[in-house]
Task: inverse folding
């Protein structure tokens, strides 16, 4: 196995592991910041793999190392997918809660519109005294 493929695979393993750690702790900002690095690592890995396939010089020991690395990548990618789906699900629930609460909060605070279409403050009902003399 050529050194380029090893380096590319290790870089890819590292960035996916970092993203998985960020997703596990719901640090979505950090996970998102790894997107470009992950894309570059994937591209480098694919290019190195193509060069390796063209060389066709792999002995059984190298082949075993490639299979082990591929298995590790497969496991990390499967975990990455699961963590991404979980993060998306949580984010959708949070957005749903906010989306449902916003109209109620606005309606509670402002129940009328001005002529220009903006919301007007709710008029407070003046104090009322009732007399029941008959």
Result:
């Amino acid at each position: 196995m050529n050194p380029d493929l090893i380096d590319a695979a290790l870089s890819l393993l590292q960035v996916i592991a970092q993203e998985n750690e960020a997703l596990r702790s719901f640090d979505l900002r950090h996970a998102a910041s790894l997107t470009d690095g992950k894309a570059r690592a994937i591209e480098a890995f694919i290019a190195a793999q193509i060069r390796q396939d063209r060389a066709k010089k792999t002995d059984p020991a190298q082949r075993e190392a490639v299979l082990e690395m591929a298995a590790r990548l497969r496991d990390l990618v499967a975990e990455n997918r699961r963590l991404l789906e979980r993060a998306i699900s949580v984010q959708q629930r949070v957005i749903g809660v906010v989306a449902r609460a916003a109209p109620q909060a606005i309606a509670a605070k402002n129940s009328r519109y001005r002529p220009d279409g903006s919301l007007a403050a709710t008029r407070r009902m003046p104090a009322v005294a009732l007399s029941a003399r008959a």
About this structure: The chain has four helices and two strands. The mean pLDDT is 81. The beta strands are 112-113, 119-120. The chain has one domain: 3-111.
